[in-house]
């Protein structure tokens, strides 16, 4: 720094020569120096004031922003740091074909205790038992007074329960946020949805995993973050499901049945529009499975998929269709039905004496065991097995339910001639109602294989051909005649051209043999038969219609009326307009004037 001298020699000499006072120069320089120093100090002070002001403004802005964030968030318990991977609790919704929610997520809270932080453990235990009566007071007191550092009390809390626990005021009772699965329709579609529970659990989150039904079958899809919350769309229609369940439940009670199931399927796409199994359960409070006894007695048992039954005379249309398709017979071919039919030590009889012979059509209409068995013998065991295998009766159904894998049809160990005969009319071989629904769809849709699915289909892809279109048309005519003048006359629903086949099979005993007074009654139907759209299967377990002098257990008296009412209720909901039966067109007289 260069400082100007107060008494510069040059200016002093000049002042003396001019006779001026040299001290004036010194005073002037001192004044200028002081002014310079004053300006520098002012500038420095102004800079410091500006910096301080900016600092305080920024500090107050940060404090205000933090206070805003705290005020806008909910209070939460302090979180301890943990190691390991984060638990992903996100799970996609499940909806029906029209977008109605079947399963979704609900934010709730869990309750846990840290006994070492509790102030009054005995009082807290007593008040917890008052809020949750299922808790054991003695057990809680023991846990709270022991050496445990952590204790789960409740995995899910309602808002009211959470507030009641909060009012206890003990710092050792803590809450953890979590996501739970909610089924807003309760029991409706319970067996299809299955249920979900918690997998890996942490204090602040829990992993929701599927335990049964589509929840388990599509567990990876529903938990995949890459799906970005896209819902899983099923083929079910909840309007149809609700109407069908109401009818089936009423029919089960009227027919005094132990259980019941129904399946409504699109004959072209294989989409399951409705699937019901009774008794059922609420997936929000899914019960535990049976430890002992018959698994089918559990409400968790899905009779539509897991129920493997001898389905009786519903199988007769398969023998007739195969015989027609390979050219052994035509619908009017006469078959010997004189009985009883002897095969070794076995005798095959009909429910009624139908005379010495019947046409193929009347064998189906009147449900002749003897006539069907004779056609099956002409077909032969090898061709019969190949045909039933092509219909899917040798494997589990490919439907998207984890329970389906364990429901493989029961087949004869040795396929002798007697088995060829009995299988043709639905005895000696057991399958699920869903197997039957898929096979009947193939019979009436023109002859192409149908695979059942619970996912909504965007396009229709025809499966491999099983029977010709001509055979399929002939089978439809026979099934229609069964309703018009056969064993399913109670299935007449005006305007919807219902066709179908009844089946009544004695129920097998657990240790061999058959009950004499317990049956499985099934009605396999399709509508409208002029252009089939849907197949409906109704199966009743141990039905008994008791309005007459003697109990009536056959499908014609039990399953058929239930199916008819179900069609009457659901057909309009499916968008099917009632039409005049083609057979009645000849009765219409044109009376309009020219």
UniProtKB/TrEMBL annotation:
GO molecular function ontology, one term from the record: penicillin binding
One GO BP annotation of this record: cell wall organization
Keyword terms: Carboxypeptidase, Cell cycle, Cell division, Hydrolase, Membrane, Protease, Transmembrane, Transmembrane helix
Residue ranges of every copy of the Penicillin-binding protein transpeptidase domain listed in the record: 262-550
Major localization class: membrane
Subcellular localization: Membrane
InterPro entries named in the record: Beta-lactam/transpept, Beta-lactam/transpept-like, PBP_dimer, PBP_dimer_sf, PCN-bd_Tpept
Cellular component terms (Gene Ontology): plasma membrane
Signal peptide coordinates: none
Domain Penicillin-binding protein dimerisation: 87-223
Xref: Pfam families: PBP_dimer, Transpeptidase
TM regions (residue ranges): 49-69
Name of protein: Cell division protein FtsI (Penicillin-binding protein 3)
Species assigned in the record: Litoreibacter meonggei
């Amino acid at each position: 720094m260069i400082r100007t001298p107060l008494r510069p020699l040059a200016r002093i000499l000049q002042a003396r020569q001019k006779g001026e006072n040299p001290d004036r120069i010194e005073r002037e320089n001192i004044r200028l120096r002081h002014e310079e120093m004053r300006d520098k100090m002012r500038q420095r002070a102004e800079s410091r004031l500006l910096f301080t002001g900016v600092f305080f403004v920024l500090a107050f802005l940060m404090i205000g922003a933090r206070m805003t964030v705290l005020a806008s968030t909910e209070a939460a318990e302090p979180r301890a740091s943990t190691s390991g991977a984060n638990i992903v609790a996100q799970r996609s919704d499940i909806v029906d074909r029209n977008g109605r929610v079947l399963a979704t997520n609900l934010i709730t809270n869990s309750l846990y205790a840290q006994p070492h932080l509790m102030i009054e453990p005995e009082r807290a235990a007593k008040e917890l038992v008052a809020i949750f009566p299922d808790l054991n007071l003695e057990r809680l007191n023991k846990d709270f007074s022991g050496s445990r550092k952590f204790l789960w009390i409740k995995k899910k809390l309602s808002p009211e329960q959470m507030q009641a626990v909060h009012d206890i005021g003990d710092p050792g009772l803590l809450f953890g946020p979590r996501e739970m699965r909610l089924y807003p329709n309760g029991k409706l579609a319970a067996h299809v949805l299955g249920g979900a529970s918690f997998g890996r659990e942490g204090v602040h989150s829990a992993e929701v995993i599927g335990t049964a039904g589509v929840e388990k079958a599509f567990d990876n899809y529903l938990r995949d973050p890459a799906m970005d919350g896209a819902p899983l769309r099923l083929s079910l229609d909840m309007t149809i499901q609700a109407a069908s369940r109401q009818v089936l439940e009423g029919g089960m009670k009227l027919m005094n049945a132990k259980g019941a199931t129904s399946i409504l399927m699109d004959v072209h796409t294989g989409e399951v529009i409705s699937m019901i199994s009774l008794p059922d359960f609420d997936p929000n409070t899914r019960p535990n499975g049976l430890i002992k006894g018959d698994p089918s007695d559990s409400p968790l048992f899905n009779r539509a998929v897991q129920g493997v039954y001898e389905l009786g005379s519903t199988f007769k249309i398969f023998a007739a269709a195969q015989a027609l398709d390979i050219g052994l017979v035509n619908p009017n071919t006469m078959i010997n039905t004189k009985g009883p039919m002897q095969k070794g030590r076995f005798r095959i009889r009909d429910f009624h004496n139908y005379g010495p012979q019947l046409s193929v059509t009347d064998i189906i209409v009147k449900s002749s065991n003897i006539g069907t068995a004779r056609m099956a013998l002409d077909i032969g065991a090898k061709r019969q097995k190949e045909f039933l295998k092509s219909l899917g009766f040798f494997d589990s159904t490919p439907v998207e339910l984890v329970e389906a894998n364990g429901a493989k049809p029961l087949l004869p160990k040795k396929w002798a001639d007697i088995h060829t005969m009995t299988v043709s009319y639905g005895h000696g071989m057991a399958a699920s109602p869903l197997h039957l629904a898929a096979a009947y769809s193939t019979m009436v849709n023109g002859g192409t294989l149908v695979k059942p699915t619970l996912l909504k289909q965007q396009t229709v892809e025809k499966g491999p051909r099983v029977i010709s279109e001509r055979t399929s048309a002939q089978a439809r005519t026979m099934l229609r005649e069964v309703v018009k003048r056969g064993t399913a006359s109670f299935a007449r629903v005006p305007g919807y051209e219902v066709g179908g086949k009844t089946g009544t099979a004695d129920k097998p005993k657990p240790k061999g043999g058959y009950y004499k007074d317990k049956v499985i009654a099934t009605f396999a139907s399709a509508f409208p038969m002029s252009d089939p759209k849907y197949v409906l299967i109704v199966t009743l377990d141990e039905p008994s219609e008791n309005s007459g002098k003697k109990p009536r257990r056959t499908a014609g008296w039990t399953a058929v009326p239930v199916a008819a009412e179900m069609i009457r209720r659901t057909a309009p909901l499916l968008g099917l307009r009632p039409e005049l039966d083609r057979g009645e067109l000849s009765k219409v007289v044109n009376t309009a004037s020219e």
